[in-house]
Amino acid sequence: xxxxxxxxxxxxxxxxxxxxxxxxxxxxxxxxxxxxxxxxxxxxxxxxxxxxxxxxxxxxxxxxxxxxxxxxxxxxxxxxxxxxxxxxxxxxxxxxxxxxxxxxxxxxxxxxxxxxxxxxxxxxxxxxxxxxxxxxxxxxxxxxxxxxxxxxxxxxxxxxxxxxxxxxxxxxxxxxxxxxxxxxxxxxxxxxxxxxxxxxxxxxxxxxxxxxxxxxxxxxxxxxxxxxxxxxxxxxxxxxxxxxxxxxxxxxxxxxxxxxxxxxxxxxxxxxxxxxxxxxxxxxxxxxxxxxxxxxxxxxxxxxxxxxxxxxxxxxxxxxxxxxxxxxxxxxxxxxxxxxxxxxxxxxxxxxxxxxxxxxxxxxxxxxxxxxxx
Length: 374
Ligand code: ADP
Ligand code: MG
Description:
By secondary structure, this protein is α+β, with helices and mostly antiparallel strands. Helices cover 24% and strands 33% of the residues.
């Protein structure tokens, strides 16, 4: 991108500023702040009930916040009803017009925008092709399966040329193969339109595979917003680390801040590349290390004790396609998982019951405030 364009200050496509919301006196969103850039693909992930759909409904204008403002392209739309906001929404439950054919459903937006009969039918057919439903054009929605209706709803939203499209688990009802196809197509259409997509999904692979950034929600709060690499490699807290993938976790006391930081666990000294700011010397931390960053090595009886080298015994080995998942447990009962790739080379493969050393580099070790993680 030319520098002149890059430096142009554009308003966020969507800006949530201090949004709070409750239902029946129960707070479901707490002081949410979020900017989504024009042309960005943002995925919202989080457990069921964490408030993802409520965020979408607030942006779409189907709910009003109790506190805070919603901006679309720099305009405060907090008081505007849904039909006056320049966003399109595809919800889990697709409200198609039952008395119109599939083609007419998809052509509805272009018709409202004054497109000619020819133009809108061409456009509707183009998007029905995209969602792999070219033969359903003349049928009624209720003659189609749930998954097909969902794809019609998607085609209808896309045919509006939306600058902002809100998608709430739009592929949830589809089988794996179709979902993979649709993920690629959606990403392609989004790039072609230059549209801003906000995409709610409970499928993390989908979020990691499609999104420019992920917003991670937990119980009505945004725990972290960042690129897939940022949220996976540098989770903001232990809960995010465990929610996005898996992690070896254990408790250790912070001894001193240094490079690297030093902690003491029951089973030996630990050095950590990252220690949360709020932790001081003497505090108990919850330490997390990804299984991909954890390796098991043969025990060297000559070796002096060293940080991040933990004596354990191999208790389980599972080979899943190209990866090997091994599990070892210390004498004190602390379990560690290691995931490595079978790369053809003769790497160390211990037998069940063998003594091993669990190893990880300090850079892979992150120490967080100790808190419940589920
Ligand atoms: P998610 O989409 O992440 O599963 P939701 O946004 O649907 O979560 O819901 C967040 C919380 O708000 C849940 O506890 C849910 O029960 C509650 N909730 C959502 N909509 C309503 C409503 N219309 N009335 C009362 N409670 C609601
Ligand atoms: Mg939902």
